[in-house]
Structure formats: C-alpha cells, structure tokens
Design a protein that fits this description.
371 residues, mainly alpha
Length: 371
C-alpha cells in the first residue's frame, strides 16, 4: 500500500480545518489543555472526543486512527480472554491453590525460594539462551524481604551446549521432585500457553510486521538481573523481544552468561499474556500510525510537511495528547513529573480501557463512537 496519498489527504484535511471555528466547545478544550493546573486532565479525556475535535468533526487522521486502535484493542482483549481461559478453569477446579502456593517454598542448592519462582526457574532451564547465564552467573530472586543471589550450577566450567543441557536436566529433576501434582498441572498449562498460544500470536504478528519471525526453541521470557528494574516500565514490544532469538537483544543473546532475574511464574505469565495480546492487537496499527504521522510530503527535508508538523501548528496540546496516548498503549512509563507519580499505575491499563478493552463496556464505547 502506498502511504503517500493517504498521508497527503490527511494533511490536506488538517490544513483545511485549521481555521474552522467550533464555538464554545473549542474554547473549552483550549482552556483545559492550556491550563497547567489542569494539564493532566488530558490523560482522562475521552480519546474520541479529542479526535473529533482535532479533525473538526470530519473523517480525518485522528478519528480514523482511533477507530483502528479501538478495533485492535478489542482484538487484544478477546485474545487475552481466550488465552487465560485454561488458567481460570484450573483455578476454578483448585480453588485453594492460588493462596496456598504463594505461601510455599522450594529448596534449591540449600536456598529456600518461593515456589512460584522455583516453577519459573525450572521452566527457564529449558531455554538455551538462558543456560549460559544460569550455569556461570546464576540468578537473583526476591523472597519478599530481600534480593537473594544463587551461584551458577556450573561456574567456571567450560561446557558445550549438550553438556549444559545434561547438567540443567539434573538441576530440573531436583526441583521437579518437590512439586505437587497440582504444581505440575499448573506448569503444564503455563507451558502450553507460552509455547502454543503466545508463540502463535507473536509469530503471526511478527510476519505481518516484518515478513519473518525470529521465535525459535522453547518459548519463555527471560530477563537479566542487571535490567530487572526496567521490567515494569517496558513496552509490549520489549515483552515480545524477551522470547525472540535476536542477537541485538541483551536478554536473549545465544551464549550470554549474565546473571538472570527469576520472578514468580504467575507474574511472568500474567505480564506476557497481556503484553503479547496487546502486541497482536495493536502493533501493526501503531506501525501504521507512525508511518502516516511522520511521512514527509515536502521535497525539503529541512522543512518537513507531515501530519505531525501540521497537527502541532493546528493544536499542539491535542497533538501531545495523542502522542501520550500512543505511548501509554505501548506500556511506556510516562516522564516523571506533573501527575505521573500519582497516576502512573494507570499507565497502559487506563489507556487500553479508554479504547474499550473492558469487555463489559466496549459495546457502549463503540456505539457512542459510531453515533
């Protein structure tokens, strides 16, 4: 698809509407968005209301892109519900399991670690990209009070990949014999979700975006200890990279020997299901948004004419609102300051809710959009 005619049409609409008056409604928006004391209200404004205002109630870039984002958001929400269904069925069948397993510990190399962390460690030993780090540098985990470090299972030894696999199997056996039947059923469900459901969604979206996918081998996210603090401020693109066999990704470089960070399997599974569902629903739409938003229609590279530049000239605050919305949808933590400390926990969740991702409200959201 040639994006130039589409971008050119959007730019023409923005220019044509620059002088359009919308009466008291426009004055209200300008007052809200230009009032520093109320500046964070833009986070809570209805996106379609802002989009319609920016397009001056025509079918323009912002309203059409928001329609695409809402459709992608619904796709992500449905996918996430479907992926989670086996977990819900398991917890419904074993009603006391969730509260019980969170209180248990498993012994590994003389160290007591949370059972859910031990489950993730067991599974991580199946991933080739993790073996070098686990063997040489070991891993860190938090027991709820402090961070504990465990030495590598083959520190100082120069082992081939085949030898590493054999040694890892011995470590796994020591863990596995401490697991209950319910633990093993839970791990089996998690493995299926990772290696079938999430893998399929990731690979299909990769191919749509770039024509290929670099997902291979046992599928489970891995994270190095030296970057563990960035987990909660990363995007769904970052979450996808944790399962890619990509040489540029420091977490997944083949043979990397950096210390790993081990969390509870429930946390990692929950974050990855959510991240990959968003990736599958929204990544291609955000790619499209970025292309059309930044495509330069000017022959002078020093004086670009894009949707971005024309939007900034028309209504800079509204333009900033949409940049923040796109950022929040990807799960990128906002810059500290303003209201972000107070509302930072809304990060991606509020943005996706605004797109109608909550199954109970999306039909209402969509009906109001098409009204």
């Amino acid at each position: 698809m040639d994006a130039k005619p589409i971008a050119d049409g959007y730019i023409a609409t923005i220019k044509r509407n620059k002088g359009v008056k919308v009466g008291w409604f426009g004055k209200f928006f300008d007052k809200v968005f230009n009032n520093e004391k109320a500046s964070y209200l833009q986070t809570f404004a209805d996106p379609m209301t802002v989009a319609r205002y920016m397009d001056k109630y025509e079918s323009g870039f912002y309203s059409e892109m928001l329609a695409e984002l809402r459709a992608g958001g619904i796709k992500a929400s449905v996918l996430e519900m479907n992926i989670r269904q086996p977990l819900e069925e398991f917890l419904s069948k074993h009603k006391k399991y969730g509260s019980g397993v969170s209180k248990r510990t498993i012994t590994y190399k003389g160290v007591e670690m949370p059972a859910l962390d031990a489950f993730l460690l067991y599974m991580t030993m199946n991933r080739e990209q993790a073996l070098g780090g686990l063997a040489e540098a070991g891993f860190a985990f938090n027991n709820g009070k402090e961070t504990i470090r465990v030495n590598g299972f083959a520190k100082g030894e120069e082992l081939s990949l085949a030898e590493l696999r054999e040694r890892a199997k011995v470590e796994q056996d020591e863990l596995y014999k401490q697991f209950t039947e319910e633990d093993r059923e839970y791990i089996s469900i998690a493995e299926k979700i990772f290696n079938e459901d999430c893998r399929e969604a990731k690979m299909e979206t990769d191919i749509l975006r770039q024509g290929y996918s670099n997902v291979a081998g046992y599928y489970i996210p891995i994270h190095r200890a030296n970057s563990a603090k960035t987990i909660d401020s990363s995007s769904f693109f970052d979450e996808g990279n944790r399962v890619s066999d990509a040489s540029f990704n420091k977490d997944t470089v083949q043979g990397a020997k950096g210390e790993l960070y081990i969390e509870g399997l429930d946390e990692v599974l929950d974050r990855h299901i959510h991240g990959i569902s968003l990736y599958a629903g929204l990544a291609t739409v955000i790619d499209q948004y970025d292309i059309l938003y930044n495509l330069n229609m000017s022959e002078d590279a020093n004086k670009p004419i894009t949707v971005r530049t024309e939007s900034e000239n028309t209504w800079a605050k509204g333009n900033d609102y949409f940049k923040k919305l796109i950022s929040d949808l990807q799960g990128i933590s906002p810059t500290r300051g303003g209201g972000s400390k107070l509302f930072g926990f809304f990060r991606g969740h509020y943005a996706t809710y605004q797109l109608g991702l909550n199954p109970k409200v999306w039909f209402t959201q969509l009906s109001s959009f098409f009204a």
